[in-house]
Amino acid sequence: MTVLGLNHGEYNSSAAIVDAGRVIAGAPEERFSRQKRTKAFPGRAVRYCLDEAGVDLESLDAVAQGWNPGAYWAAYNPLLSGTRVRREDYLYSVPDNLLQVGDRRAPHWVAMSFPGGSALPPIYYVDHHLCHAATSYFTSPFDEAAVFTADWRGEIQCGMLGVGRGNQIETLRHLNLPDSLGMFYATFTQLLGYQPDNDEWKVMALSAFDVDASEEERRIWETLRLTDDGWFEMDQSYYKGMLVEQPLLYTPKLVSLLGGRVGLPGEDAGEWHFRVARAMQSVAEGIAVHALTHLHGLTGLDRVVLGGGFFMNSVFNGKVASLTPFRDVFVPFAPADVGNSIGSALYVEHSILGSPRDVHRSISSIGPQFPPEGVVASLERRGIAFERLADPVADVARLVERHGVVAYFDGRMEFGERALGNRSILADPRPADIKDRINSIIKYREAYRPFAPVSTVEAAATYFDIAPGAEIPFMEKVVPVREEYRDALAAITHVDGSGRLQTLRREDNHRLYDILLSFGELSGYPVLLNTSFNVNGEPIVCTPDDALSTFFNSGLRVLVLGDLVVCK
Q: Which pTM was predicted?
């Protein structure tokens, strides 16, 4: 059974294709269009997925979209359904009017079929948060788990509590607007002077600074109330994210509560920024812990999967097992909206069409790859001199050790927000000034933001405070760097002694794994700094031409393309 999944109209449009329960191809549209976080229809990503799977539209069993217009049938829409302007509106207005006569219950998904020789297969429109749940549960290694999703908003919801068993996901409780954890976080992101629904990771980095934020935390809690059913309520006199008078998400009352000032775009972060960010992160964690504790009581399960944009919060992800009753925690490689192309396809295949689930290990490298002759053609077309590496593993390790920073392009492109070793900038994790060097030559981002480490799964527990053999494959959790190695691994250690770790098994990426071992022989540490191969504000590179353009438009000096190297 083959299903094409779409995330269209939400930030970072994407497409993915699933066959027999396996995600065989997927990519964000931004990687092809080079328009970061585009909402455009993912036409180029769709073509890539179909080509990779060797199928056409007519041979698909279904198409799935990660948003359900039928969710709005929960209440009658007199503007659209009572005064139809175009006959095309019948697709919505006829069911809406019929529900006035019958039992009005909005479905969790709706389907459109195209009989009469149409080239289109059935299209299923699935609730946004069911897609988040499906991305998390169906890509997890669990055959049964509690499910918690949270983001700014879906159709009329901002999250769900549920449970996954076999090939089904049961919703135990909808978390409805306007009480949105994602919007809460976005409000303070904007208040601090950053772009909401985009720069939350900057605020997360600010929250690590060691300041006394107890008074700010107390005041923020005054604007909220935890409820007995596992969620919270926002005092709407402080928040206006659901009101028409956006673009401001906060009210003057919230500004006054937190000192009467608002952060300015581009200003240097100071004591006030650190205190507000730290306080808000702590409150957000408290809300999520409250929900997870309630969910554990509902399910009695010790495993949980987490989805939705809030769980890009790797700081909180790394604390879930210690702050809640859950012992095993899974966060997918694409928990935000971009992953809903995967989730919608998996939900349709398993939960709607009834295909049995084969629990297996998921990987993020499902994007385009390029044969060596294609890479050579790109170099020769531009007249760029290159050399062939005699021993790619040992040579790359030596290049990192010698130059400090190396752009690295190899294998299939990763799906999602993070590069995990195939479209990466690799750097020496030891010198403290490496962060400044990377920012000066390519990233051009705030100096306080940390860079992430990657280590072999066998060695990680030596340098990071995790259990031996623990896996963090998608750089999805922040963990403490062991105190005795913080100075030695200064480039990947944040101000609070933490790092957003990626652990690597050889079977997931044998080339990078062996590079880590080789670098360990040179330096004593099988650890590298790993950050995405892109200039700040642009998508991660996809093609060899993207890699070359980024390389020559930045201060990077060494670029590895598979077995080839280009040096300035």
A: 0.96
Q: pLDDT tens for residues 293-344?
A: 999 999 999 999 999 999 999 999 999 999 999 999 999 999 999 999 999 9
How far is Cα 126 from Cα 12, in angstroms, rounded to an integer? 18
Distances (CA, A) of 389 to 377, 397, 566: 17, 12, 10
Instruction: Flag whether 170 is in a domain.
Output: yes
Locate 178 and state its tokens: 């306007």
Return the SS3 of 451. coil
Question: 553 near 535, Cβ under 8 Å?
Answer: yes
Which backbone phi and psi does 344 adopt, to 5 degrees? -65, -40
- In sequence order, the 6+-apart residues with CB closer than 8 A to the CB of 533 are 407, 408, 409, 419, 423, 424, 425, 540, 541, 547, 550
The 8-class DSSP code of residue 263 comes to P
Counting Cβ atoms within 10 Å, is residue 89 exposed (0-12), middle (13-18) or buried (19+)?
middle
> What burial class does residue 242 get, using C-beta atoms within 10 Å of its C-beta: 0-12 exposed, 13-18 middle, 19+ buried?
middle
H/E run at residue 504: strand 498-504
Q: What is the pLDDT of residues 253-274, one digit of tens each?
A: 999 999 999 999 989 999 999 9
Task: Check if the beta carbon of residue 156 is closer than 8 Å to that of residue 167.
Answer: no
Instruction: Give the count of domains, the chain.
Output: 3
For CA atoms 338, 11, 284, 171, the dihedral sign is negative
Enclosing domain of residue 385? 372-567
State whether 52 and 164 are in the same domain.
no
Same domain, 406 and 285: no
Omega cis (within 30) before 526 = no
Per-residue DSSP letter, 416: S
Q: Token digits for 479?
A: 């963990």
Q: What is the DSSP string of 27-42?
A: EETHHHH--TT--S--
- Core vs surface per residue 92-131: b (16+ CB within 10 A) or e: bbebbeebeeeeeebebbbbeeeeeeeeebbbbbbbbbbb
pLDDT digits (tens, 9 = 90+) for 139-173: 999 999 999 999 999 999 999 999 999 999 999 99
Query: Region 553-567: what's the mean pLDDT?
Result: 97
